[in-house]
Write a structure and sequence with these properties.
Elements lengths: L1 H14 L6 H13 L1 H22 L8
Helix pairs in contact: 1-3, 2-3
Length: 65
């Protein structure tokens, strides 16, 4: 269930990666070099790591500067 939610979220990020922020640039770089599926897995993995860090630390999400 969580894996599906992460994959769904990653798919949405892939479609919204037309912005000019740092995360969109990172997604587009992976998309260009490794393809859409590899980029989706990388986004899902990054999101999972962010969520796990938040759960362990008890902190709220803070957008990177």
């Amino acid at each position: 269930m969580i894996k599906g939610c992460l994959a769904s979220g990653a798919s949405y990020v892939m479609h919204c990666s037309q912005k000019s922020d740092a995360r969109s640039a990172w997604v587009n770089k992976i998309k260009d070099t490794g393809g859409m599926n590899k980029a989706a897995v990388a986004v899902a993995n990054k999101n999972a790591r962010i969520v796990m860090a938040m759960l362990l630390s008890g902190e709220n999400y803070q957008k990177a500067a």
